[in-house]
Amino acid sequence: MGTSPQTEHVLTLDCPEAPGIVHAVSRFLLEHGSDIIDNQQFGDRRDGHFFMRVRFAATADETATGTLRRDFAAVAAPFAMRWHLEPVSTRRRVLVMVSRYGHCLNDLLFRTRSGDLPVDVVAVVSNHRDHEALVTWHGIPFFHVPVTAATKPDAEARLLDLVDSFDVDLVVLARYMQVLSDGLCSRLAGRAINIHHSFLPSFKGAKPYHQAHERGVKLVGATAHYVTADLDEGPIIAQEVIDVDHSHTPENLAAIGRDAESAALARAVRWHCEGRVFVQGRRTVILR
């Protein structure tokens, strides 16, 4: 007899710490004929909160995912779990926003095209046309949405229309040099990631790498974080740092910074889309 085909799923959950959580989850998977492939968990004793990510193989049929979700709801309820269950093959639909600096956009498009990132970039929005040809070459719809103080409400309404029409799961600000309104940040809470050109806290204002050079920094870094109404204060997902020294010019630092920004942003997008990021207040727990 042949082995029944199986589909891999990922279950993520978090809830207040309590006895029996792991046992309840493991028993559920066993009762549903599932095989655990990978499991990470973390119990935060300081906050009394528990986090878990399980990758498992379950019998493949058209109703398997729906059945698992329906049955797991009964397991989750007594523990007040926040949880999510989906096939590993699920690909997030991503909308990228960019201004004139194109290194992060180019890196994301390359990683997506090469299969390195488990996402589908479904649209790119920019307040400039600098990268329209690149985006079009990748076969992705490009939308030029100029932004001024007077047109900002209309521009943000246009963005939300695109998010809805393209059924977007995640918005990525790939060096998008516009501050989002508090209302838009609230609408995109938990599904918008920004890249900041510093290992926070940062040099604020114009020419950050020139400021860094003047201060004789020894590290160049970048921080990827969730977008919130508090500018550059959202929960941090990934950071990248690269050693530098007195011999680096401001231009050298900027080039090194572009590498750090691209790496940190790609890592943050990957972890988010693989269900590895849990937001807990102002910080995150990453189960890698």
From TrEMBL:
Keywords: Hydrolase, One-carbon metabolism, Purine biosynthesis. The keyword Metal-binding does not apply. It comes from the Bacteria. InterPro entries: ACT-like_dom_sf, Formyl-FH4-Hydrolase_C, Formyl_transf_N, Formyl_transf_N_sf, PurU, PurU_ACT. The active site is at residue 232. Its EC number is 3.5.1.10. Gene3D superfamilies: 3.30.70.260, Formyl transferase, N-terminal domain. It catalyses: (6R)-10-formyltetrahydrofolate + H2O = (6S)-5,6,7,8-tetrahydrofolate + formate + H(+). Residues 93-269 form the Formyl transferase N-terminal domain. Pathway: Purine metabolism; IMP biosynthesis via de novo pathway; formate from 10-formyl-5,6,7,8-tetrahydrofolate: step 1/1. One of its GO terms (molecular function) is formyltetrahydrofolate deformylase activity. Catalyzes the hydrolysis of 10-formyltetrahydrofolate (formyl-FH4) to formate and tetrahydrofolate (FH4). Belongs to the PurU family. This is Formyltetrahydrofolate deformylase. It comes from Streptomyces purpurascens. The lineage of its organism: Bacteria, Bacillati, Actinomycetota, Actinomycetes, Kitasatosporales.
